[in-house]
Design a protein that fits this description.
By secondary structure, the protein is an all-alpha fold. The protein starts with a helix and ends in a 5-residue tail after the last helix.
Length: 258
């Protein structure tokens, strides 16, 4: 199962690394451009949407990396990867009949589910790790400073966030036999939360909306500027454990049509 998913995981990791390389490559020029700084000041709503909340958001590399390398595009791509992979690991096997071969092995249903969950978790960890290593290497290449401790905390928070998305996607994957229902349910939950997070940044009056979604707990710029995301990480890990436990329970007892 690791081998089967490795090509997809490495492709996503490579694509995100190349995307970040392009962003980091233009940072030295952007940081010295007064017109870009004035643009972020003149468009405060747009700046909030892209989480450029500090006056020096485009002059410090930490803030730039948080808003761009770990910004809305990265979150969207990671959400797509997580949901599609969770669907492929359970629901697709049931729909195509491949689950019958897995369950005909000496391993029980719990072992099969834990294996599939481990594949998803390892893929998420690998992508986040390669993203962080890529940004670190690119920062070294362009002689840019980076807060390593805060950077590590951000990586742990990112894994916790998408582990939560992956865990409830696995739950839907065990709950429904139809792949369309799985993807629709997981995507609606994830992207409605993603939209609420963007909406909360449009105006200070709507700032409370971010507490209605797990994506509101993911604030890369605040983390890279020194804020320790302890309670956010613990809360996301707790939610992940609860959904994984529930998904395993359903998978063990469900009457699979295979």
């Amino acid at each position: 199962m690791f081998k089967r998913q490795s090509k997809k995981t490495c492709s996503y990791a490579l694509g995100l690394s190349l995307y970040n390389l392009l962003l980091i490559g233009v940072f030295p020029a952007l940081s010295q451009s007064s017109s870009i700084t004035k643009l972020s000041q003149n468009l405060p709503k747009l700046a909030r949407v892209f989480r450029l909340t500090s006056d020096y958001a485009l002059s410090r590399f930490e803030s730039f990396a948080a808003s761009q390398c770990f910004g809305q595009v990265w979150v969207l791509v990671m959400g797509i990867y997580t949901i599609s992979t969770a669907n492929e690991l359970i629901a697709q096997y049931v729909s195509e009949g491949g689950m019958a071969y897995l369950l005909s092995s000496p391993a029980g249903r719990r072992e099969v589910f834990l294996t599939q969950a481990a594949v998803l978790i390892s893929g998420l960890v690998l992508i986040v790790l390669l993203t962080e290593l890529g940004i670190w290497a690119e920062a070294k290449l362009f002689a840019l400073s980076l807060a390593k401790k805060a950077y590590l905390s951000l990586g742990v928070l990112a894994v916790a966030l998408f582990l939560t998305v992956g865990s409830y996607s696995l739950f839907f994957s065990t709950l429904f036999n139809n792949e369309e229902y799985v993807i629709l349910s997981a995507a609606c939950l994830a992207f409605s939360g993603y939209a609420l997070d963007i909406f909360s940044g449009l105006d200070d009056r709507f700032a409370w909306v971010k507490y209605l979604t797990i994506f509101g707990w993911f604030r890369p710029q605040e983390v890279l500027e020194g804020d320790t995301p302890a309670w956010q990480t613990v809360s996301l890990m707790t939610l992940s454990t609860a959904f994984l436990t529930l998904a395993c329970y359903v998978f063990e007892r469900k009457d699979l049509c295979i």
